[in-house]
Amino acid sequence: MATSPSAVENRRDAGEEKGAEGPLFPELVGAAPPSPAGPIEATELATLATAPNIGLPKLAQTARFSVRQIEFVFKARRELGEVFRMRGVIPGGPVITSHPDHVKSLFMAKPEQAPSLTGESPLRPILGPNSVLTAVGPRHMRQRKLLLPAFHGEAIAQYVEMITEAAEQEIDRWPVGETIALAPRMQAITLDVIMAGIFGIEGRPAPGTPEAALRTAIRKTVAASTWPTSQLTELLHVGREEPMGLMKMAIEMIDRPTYAVIRDRRRAADLGERRDILSILLRARTEEGEALDDKELRDELLTLVLAGHETTANSLSWAWERLTRNPEPHAALVEAVRRGTGVAGETAEERVEATITETMRNRPVIPIIGRRVQVPWRLGDYGVEPGTAVAMSILLVHHREDVYPDPFAFRPERWLGRKPGTYDWIPFGGGIRRCLGAALAMAEQRVVLTAMARRLDLVADRPAPERAMHRNVTMIPSRGARVIIAAKH
């Protein structure tokens, strides 16, 4: 394979510079050929073709994308190429791309040139306009700066002890010889961890407290989000500012304890000494000396609780769904964790990291992200007019045959001796919109995956893999990642 400028740049991003120890399996990761992308002049736009359209009625496209996005986007790429346009509920497109160079152009764009589409997502009525996830422009940067101290390395190190304790206690409760769904159990661990980090509570909140009421409301809301009516509700809320109907009722159930928690904490005598995220946010001030009001705090807390626990839990669920149906990677993980070294001479930590990285490539929980370009934009052979939504399909980027040979196979060894690239491994997004909690999510997955591999002998409850089911903006195992605990150590 010829080495293109794009390939060299991606490998440099992945840490494969001269003198670095090379990957153990170099044939398992390649590079995409270069493709020009980025803002252009109107004169150049006039010379470029428009992206080909998917030839289905708008309603049919919306339904297929919402219910079976995997089949929908892969079919479109096979028939139309790596850039195509769909018609759905998002105004002005979107144009969907899956080339790393196109991803790079959008991640590196100035915020005013390509603001995030999260400001238009169905999450906005839930999380509010002030959240670091849903805000755009200066508001987003303001919120991000306020949250950064809660997610630096020292803070993550403090959370690891909480994660370890939560994981061990949860595993202790699991029955041997029975079929269990891992997804709700992973959610129990990650919810306890994120609530401990946010509110500073040791273990589960005491009954009768606002924190306990909030935890219950979150669990009920997440469980209800798998109902068929929830998908319809989600579609109806695209582009809306305020919740309505069933969503409004669910938000009111969450808001009552959330505001109660904020009121209690504002009155805390030890607020200045507390290190939890809520206390840090209450003390935080912008460069202009402004403090966050209750509505801003509410939006950030809900974002951290909802986005901070469900995505990580689902990634762990997918890891075991994949491992229990792929005996060699499963055996390699268990051996490395229990003996301290793996079949390829890797350490237990390297094998765990490779397993997590491959899971997030093979089964990304967030399948698609986007920007709305405000200036003419080039995507390879195609031009995009200002005001167009451009979506980056994480699913398609992660399953390019030129970047990931045998892309549908689950091969954690791809990552032994290699770090993932910045623009072709994007489960956390990128640029100024990269997930703020990425380090915490990785730390949680390392601890929980290691504890489960060390203590449990797991087998799939049936040979067939679980298909992906959509929940809000995430993809989850359709049967909750069901396994049988054959033995516990």
Question: SSE layout and pairings?
Answer:
Layout: H1 5-13, E1 37-39, H2 42-45, H3 58-67, H4 69-80, E2 83-85, E3 95-97, H5 100-107, H6 124-127, H7 138-147, H8 153-172, E4 179-181, H9 182-199, H10 210-224, H11 228-236, H12 245-266, H13 277-283, H14 294-323, H15 327-339, H16 348-362, E5 368-372, E6 377-379, E7 382-384, E8 389-393, H17 394-397, H18 438-455, E9 456-460, E10 468-471, E11 474-477, E12 482-488
Parallel strand pairs: 3-8
Antiparallel strand pairs: 1-6, 2-3, 4-12, 5-8, 6-7, 9-12, 10-11
Helix pairs in contact: 3-4, 8-9, 8-18, 9-14, 10-12, 12-14, 14-16, 14-18, 15-16, 16-18
- Determine Rg (CA atoms, Å): 22 Å
CATH C-level class is Mainly Alpha
Q: How many helical elements?
A: 18
Whole-number mean pLDDT = 87
> Which class of secondary structure composition applies to the elements?
alpha+beta
Helix content: 40-55%
- The name CATH uses for the topology is Cytochrome p450
Low-confidence stretches: 1-20
Give the SSE string. Answer: HEHHHEEHHHHEHHHHHHHHEEEEHHEEEE
Number of domains: 1
Strand order of the largest sheet: 2-3-8-5
CATH second-level architecture? Orthogonal Bundle
CATH superfamily: Cytochrome P450
> Which shape, going by the Cα principal axes?
globular
* N/C terminus separation: 46 Å
**What profile does the largest beta sheet have?**
4 strands, mixed
**Percent of residues in beta strands?**
5-15%
Q: Kindly state the number of beta strands.
A: 12
